[in-house]
Specification:
Helix content is 26%, strand content 24%.
């Protein structure tokens, strides 16, 4: 979410620059309320009645239903981006096809076969998911408009809707991206905050694993005194950058010697992830509602000393490997596609499957302002995340660099999640 600068800067200096450049968000939606939300919610007759009890372990997380259908003159119902030919949308059909092909590749693996043997939702099998993707791919290539594609889907597919976090179908959407940072292969006075390789003996570590505080210290500089000694991979100037990389799971690096490379997720300690925003809310430092990355950054701009207090409260710690410029990969082992890949809880949702998401997301207008638009997008479920738990959470992948980071940092919205499978 941050910019690459050629000069050294302090943490408060960076945050000042960030907030001077961060565009305001406006809302463009003119969709009637009944089309925005109500008709997309889980129909009353399909809501799991068991949710009224305390026994929630055996609840269905996906409920089969008919396709939603579109309100008249509601373009947000259709994934028009596939067919538009303007500006950044020119190559989007190719991007969607590429993402479909990546899921098809995954579904042919032994990993997919083993995963779907354990998958517990009746009717959702690897073969059905695979055939559904093949047919959807054919339809994307053979149709000439979003309306034509929607008609074909309603004829041939059924929807499996997530019950969400409220049994109404409400899903909380956030977004993630691949940051681009300046880094060094060697520690210097300026570059002193490391990310670390996966410990070769991690499986033998005594549980509970050491916490973040025990591994790197409150200031993030004590790794050489812990089990992390000798595992340093790259060094960064900013205390916050290694932490952001751990949240996002990968990064592209511009090195001080002029070369470029990348790092990707290699593993993590056995601790549950705790979001920094939640930590600050619980400490009474931020209000309950409206927490985004900009509000978190603003807090630390005013209170930089608190980085050493609140970053260590996330006990989970993530390790990396150098990926030598390879694009960011998801948990199913295939490259992620910007705005066509999502992360969900893989203990519940079908990996590699075709999904439809509908929610407000921020887009950059020609004048640089961010504007929220409610959109529908066909996506592939190709990733997971430490904070993405339960049927009511989706993380939307937005790509690499500054703009993706600006958008991801302010993406917090409610919407709906559907999986599309052939009848």
């Amino acid at each position: 979410m941050k910019k690459i600068f050629n000069t050294t800067f302090s943490l408060p200096f960076f945050f000042t620059i960030f907030f001077l450049e961060m565009p305001a968000i406006k809302n463009r939606d003119t969709i009637p309320p009944e089309c925005q939300v109500t008709k997309w919610n889980l129909p009353t007759e399909l809501k799991p009645t068991a949710l009224k009890t305390e026994n929630t372990k055996n609840l269905p997380v996906l409920v089969q239903r008919l396709p939603v259908g579109c309100c008249e003159n509601d373009d947000s119902c259709l994934d028009a981006r596939i067919y538009d030919g303007e500006q950044e949308e020119i190559a989007d059909k190719k991007a969607l096809i590429k993402s479909i092909d990546q899921s098809l590749k995954y579904l042919r693996t032994r990993q997919a076969a083993a995963t779907y043997q354990r998958y517990k939702i009746s009717g959702i099998t690897r073969n059905r998911v695979y055939r559904s993707l093949q047919r959807f791919r054919e339809l994307v290539l053979s149709t000439n408009s979003p309306q034509e594609l929607q008609t074909a889907i309603e004829k041939e597919f059924v929807y499996y809707q997530s019950i969400g976090r409220d049994s109404q179908g409400t899903v909380l959407f956030t977004a993630y991206y691949e940051p681009l940072y300046l880094a060094s292969r060697k520690p210097t006075k300026e570059f002193k905050y490391p990310v670390y390789r996966l410990p070769p003996d991690l499986k033998s570590w005594t549980r509970p694993h050491p916490t973040r505080l025990e591994l790197e210290g409150a200031d993030g500089l004590q790794g050489s005194q812990s089990k992390l000694k000798g595992l340093e991979l790259f060094w960064f100037r900013d205390r916050f950058e290694p932490y952001i990389i751990q949240i996002q799971g990968s990064a592209r690096l511009k090195l001080t010697d002029g070369t470029e490379t990348s790092i990707g997720y290699a593993g993590n300690t056995a601790h549950n992830y705790k979001s920094l925003g939640r930590t600050l809310v619980e400490a009474g430092k931020l209000p309950e509602n409206g927490v985004t990355m900009p509000t978190i950054f603003e807090y630390f701009q005013k209170n930089p000393q608190d980085l050493n207090v609140y970053l260590p409260r996330n006990n989970s710690f993530v390790f990396f490997r150098e990926t030598y410029g390879r694009s960011a990969h998801g948990s199913v082992g295939v490259p992620l596609t910007p705005e066509r890949s999502i992360a969900t809880d893989k203990s519940l949702m079908p990996p590699g499957a075709l999904a439809l998401i509908r929610a407000p997301f921020p887009f950059v207008k020609n004048n640089g302002e961010l504007e929220n638009r409610t959109v529908s997008r066909f996506v592939l479920d190709q990733d997971t995340g430490g904070a993405i738990k339960g049927p009511g959470r989706v993380d939307y992948y937005l790509g690499t660099g500054d703009i993706a980071g600006d958008r991801a940092g302010v993406t917090v919205s409610n919407g709906q999640l559907f999986y599309l499978l052939l009848k």
